[in-house]
Design brief:
mainly alpha
């Protein structure tokens, strides 16, 4: 099944594609590079960046003042970050998984220990819960 081969950003984004008029295949492409903390660099968690994508999609662009739309989206993202940090203490994949996925040895160890199937679904689930709360509020 395809869902077992998606990265965290793709898992989150694909759930919301229909809600925001985005073709699922396009959503998967948009989120493709964000897994493993931005292409396995250990930076911002894919579940987090996936939420950022959805928060951006949820906003209307004010054609007369696009900056207003950007600032509103930033406020939503800051709210998301605050809540995710409260739950997990970090936004960084490397810190959340406790593995540096840019290292072939640590990536192999994380795969061997099934970190992606044990830890990542909880991070995606928490990101989705926070996202739902924010989307319902704004």
């Amino acid at each position: 099944m395809l869902e077992h081969h998606l990265n965290c950003a793709q898992s989150l984004v694909s759930t919301y594609c229909e809600d925001f008029g985005l073709d699922r295949n396009q959503g998967l492409k948009v989120a493709m590079g964000f897994g493993g903390g931005m292409a396995r660099t250990g930076k911002t968690c894919g579940a987090v960046t996936g939420a950022y994508i959805i928060l951006g999609l949820s906003q209307r662009v004010n054609e007369n003042n696009p900056r207003e739309s950007i600032e509103r989206t930033y406020r939503l993202i800051h709210d998301f970050n605050r809540q995710f940090l409260t739950l997990h203490g970090s936004l960084l994949c490397k810190m959340l998984l406790k593995y540096d996925l840019s290292s072939p040895e640590q990536l192999a160890e994380a795969q061997e220990k099934r970190i992606f199937t044990i830890t990542c679904p909880g991070l995606v689930g928490d990101a989705a819960k926070i996202l739902e709360t924010i989307l319902a509020t704004y």
